[in-house]
Design a protein that fits this description.
The protein is built from seven helices and 13 strands. By secondary structure, the protein is α+β, with helices and mostly antiparallel strands. It has a single domain (9-313), classed as Hotdog Thioesterase (Thiol Ester Dehydrase, Chain A, Roll), CATH 3.10.129. The strands form two sheets. The protein has an eleven-stranded antiparallel sheet, with helices on both faces. Strands 3-4 form a two-stranded antiparallel ribbon. The longest helix is centred in the N-terminal third of the chain and has 12 residues, at 59-70. Mean pLDDT is 89; it is low at 33-39.
């Protein structure tokens, strides 16, 4: 039983995957009735070359490396924790790298790079409870000061529970205008584990499992039904993301519930960021997965930002 038919190399203590060109599937994504940063025209107005590839798309390139490192346990208790360092555009080649772990440091460092050496993301991968890349980033965060876009968002606010499900041919709404079957047709690392319907011999769980990059889609599927009070319209992007399987894997065509809590607010010269932790429950009410997501909203994409900043704080923005 083989999860992946993909060649990887080993150099020193690092596992290195093949070069891949991930596909951009969010050109038609909309939220708050406007296009997103994955739309070419919208992205170009904000200084990007074109529509960007969604960050968790890159998680699939690490799946083969993590499965080599930890075996089937990766699909049950695996965790990827990543800080996105630069955007990637369709047609660009990227490579995933997983460094060796040790008894003292059970988590592995991960990195993704472009052909020219540009770092797309860095972080950690693990199958046990251990400090993750985003655990460390959260400890070092400076509280958001002088918020405009996020001025009505409060740390500790928890949204209502929402039921979610992902079937093979289910289009996942305005945020994700494609289906799992369409994703599997272009995913960088496919596996019989993801599509072995009706054939228990194709994976250890006897049912098709949801790839980690598509867990992000499942968890965010209904987020706009219970939105945070963020000022808009404005354009956001994923700046940090961690997905942890607690009692995995998660299955295709299975009912789950999700609940989001704002756990931190932070900012930079360009962005205001809301960090939300999503907890995912099975039908028995057991937590089976979590996601920590930093949705960073671009200040320049909110038209009245400067005017509202002066109204709120009596001075212009530095």
């Amino acid at each position: 039983m083989t999860a992946f038919d993909i060649q990887i190399s080993q150099t020193g203590g690092a596992l290195i995957g093949p070069w891949r060109r991930p596909r951009q599937m969010l050109q038609a994504q909309t939220y708050d009735a406007h296009a997103s940063i994955h739309d070419d025209a919208t992205a170009q107005k904000l200084g990007f070359k074109g529509g960007t590839i969604e960050g968790p798309t890159h998680f699939s390139q690490f799946a083969r490396l993590c499965e080599r490192q930890w075996g089937p346990a990766w699909f049950e208790t695996g965790c990827i924790s990543a800080h996105y360092r630069s955007v990637c555009y369709e047609g660009e080649e990227v490579q995933a790298i997983l460094m060796a772990s040790s008894d003292e440091q059970p988590e592995c460092q991960i990195q993704m790079v472009k052909r020219d050496g540009t770092e797309v993301l860095r972080g950690t991968a693990s199958i046990v409870e251990s400090p993750t890349a985003l655990d460390l980033r959260l400890r070092e965060l400076k509280p958001l000061t002088d918020p405009v876009i996020l001025r009505d968002v409060q740390v500790g606010v928890t949204g209502k529970r929402q039921s979610v499900r992902m079937a093979f041919d289910q289009t996942m709404g305005d945020l994700y205008p494609f289906s799992l079957r369409q994703k599997l047709a272009v995913i960088t690392e496919n596996s019989p584990f993801y599509s072995g319907a009706g054939n228990p011999s194709l994976n250890p769980w006897g049912r098709p499992i949801i790839p980690m990059e598509m867990l992000s889609v499942l968890f965010q599927y209904r987020s706009k039904d219970d939105p945070l009070p963020v000022k808009g319209p404005a354009v956001g992007l994923f700046a940090d993301q961690e997905i942890r399987l607690v009692k995995g894997p998660l299955f295709v065509d299975e009912d789950y519930e999700v609940e989001r809590e704002v756990v931190a607010l932070s900012g930079s010269g360009r962005t205001e960021s809301a960090w939300a932790r999503t907890r995912v429950f099975d039908k028995a009410g057991v937590v089976v997965a979590t996601m920590l997501l930093n949705m960073a909203t671009l200040k320049d994409s909110y038209a009245p930002y400067e005017e509202e900043y002066r109204q709120l704080y009596g001075v212009g923005r530095n």
